[in-house]
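The pair is quoted verbatim as follows:
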Amino acid sequence: FPSHDRARSLFWLVQMIAIGFSMIVLIVVAVFGGQIATNSGNARLGFWLWILPPGIVMYAISQSCMYYANRTKQFGIIAQNTIVQGITLNGVRVISGFLRSPVNGLLVGQIAAQFFATLHIVWRNRMLLAGIGTASIGSMVAQAKAYAAYPKYNMILNFTNNLSGALPVLLFTRGYRDWE
């Protein structure tokens, strides 16, 4: 299937970009992580900054597998992945609540849900991962050229969407500090 080959090339292109970006973020965290945590007013943030680079790669893998499943019309896999993510997210929240865990179940639940959903979608798309040799640099470049205009059209929309979601969190968390 030619469309499967294009989807596979797009998957591997996204992985290369995500790994490169994750390396840049890793360098920023290594050099400026302490300063970022101090300037945010919460020194304990420094630990969570180290989760960011592998989280970027994990998210890219998960989303790329979802796009691949969508393009190859594997909608059952997408539905199963959503169920796995929802069960994990809420299961960790409930368990941490019952155990009265000192670690917040919201953040740990989100990380666990992303991790298990990524494992699930990778397992279901393992043939994609086995086909790494079929994705050439030329086919990845062709996919990059085909999708080059995509961010330009959606950049303002995505920026305002992300800003509207993150701004309340940034504003409200300023008033709720850890008073240890």
About this structure: The chain has a mean pLDDT of 80. The CA atoms of residues 32 and 46 lie 10 Å apart. The chain has eight helices and no strands. The first helix runs from residue 2 to 40.
